[in-house]
Amino acid sequence: MNNLSTLVLKGRDIYMLREKKFNLLIVLVLLSLILLLILISCNPNIPRKRDVKNMEVNIVEEPSQSIDFKLNNLLIEFGLPDKDLRVIDEIRSVLINPEIGASTGYKTYTDLEFYDLLNNLGASRVKKIAKSYLKVNNFQEDFENSLNNILSEDERGDLQSKLNDNRASYALYLKKLFSNSAFGEMMLDNYVAQMIAREGIQIAQLEEKIRSALGREYIYLQLAGGEKAAIDEIQGIITNAAIGASTGYKTYTAFEFYDLLNSLGTLKVKEMIRAHLERKKLRDADYIKTRDMIGKVKDRRLEEELQKLLSNAQDAYNVYLKELFHKSDLDSDLDSDLDSDLDSDPEHVYRKVAHSKYRFVFESAQRNAQNILNYEKMYANLSKRDQNLLNDIRNNIVEHSDFSFNSLLGDLGASDVQDIINFHLNVLRASKDAREVISNLPSGNDKEELREKFNDFAIKYNAHLRWCFKGNDSNRVYNRVINSRYADNFTNIQEAALKLIPISDPSSTIADIIDEF
């Protein structure tokens, strides 16, 4: 027993010794691993088993990643925008899905086959296919977003079901279309042609179901908030008989307006709205620019007149919009320019509204506002004498209001206006010189004859000024004034009077003219 105990104790001691050695070994191994990791981090050229293992995993996964990489590079090479990239990804998800058209035998693509399909189609065809798909997809999404406008839950559910059916039928059509993977040029072109042809069918099928469910306002209910606001604005204008009353343009009733929209369909109505909003954006920018210019005019009376021009411009734009919704025989040139047959009045209205350019109606308000601002700045820089001369011209031209006079001269510029002031000053000086000489003549028939001529020219000068300023063409006004020799009439009278003054009479010399101007 003692021997056994001794053996047990001895064995335990041996075990404990071995355990200590084993623990020491573990510590040494851990230290070695830590040292190895430090060396590897300092020298990336040392091979690591984990890297080797990862390389083996990557080799296994390489085919799948390679296809995604190649496909991404191909689409980048095609130069597709982000929205088209999403479209291609959706088409891919349809063509590689075995559950779509499973019972029909339509081809299900692998990722590699889909890559080959795009590669053979080329950038131009892929972009056309994406554009066609996007048109259908946008219509479906717009309709889905509009379901919130339908109050009845049953109606919403029914229309959502119809929308789901439409999406499913379109996916099935894509599977069918691309089942033939023979990549000849004719077949590749056929893919594009069939996609474009199908977009109208797909949209028409969904529209018909929507039309039957929603009635007269089915188009309106599918529009987004901003689009509805645009339609409301258009309706308010073309149903207002007071707008363009003298033009004979058609005034719609609300029923006629919605019937027009429904007959055109959602896509064309949205095109019309986009065109209207683009023109409205330009109109609003021009309105703000013109309004701000008018706000800088210091003369409140002239500012009020400019505000009337601005209001008239707004009215003119509303009349223009009403014109776009009006059908007349004079519109044949537009249809010729658009290279399309006139199928019906709704189609004609669609072409005019969707394709007509922005009409700038603020030209008069902007031009006059700028001219008056120019005049105010120029007038402030004149001397007091020149301001009085300019006011004297204005007072003699009764045909021109302050508004037209200021705008006319503001269009010329400071240098030209100074020439006009100098012309008027020269006439007044010549007139004063002639009157002074005549007054110093001895009484007699010659003096009375010269006085009558002088009075006749003095009276006619106002008429001459009015003739010079006739019309609103500033350049013509300037040329008339500059080319006028009216001062010569008074100079000739002065010279004739000087000949009648006796040389021996020292009191007959001409007094210096006091310049009142």
Describe the fold and architecture.
This protein is mainly alpha-helical and 517 residues long. It folds into 4 domains: 2-46; 76-221, no CATH class; 236-364, no CATH class; 382-508, no CATH class. 76% of the residues lie in helices and 0% in strands. It is built from 20 helices and no strands. The protein has helices spanning 2-42, 49-78, 82-95, 111-146, 153-177, 185-214, 218-221, 225-238, 254-264, 266-295, 300-324, 332-337, 345-355, 363-380, 384-396, 402-412, 414-439, 445-468, 474-482, 486-499. Helix 5 (153-177) packs antiparallel against helix 6 and helix 18 packs antiparallel against helix 20. Keywords: Membrane, Plasmid, Transmembrane, Transmembrane helix. The chain crosses the membrane at residues 21-40.
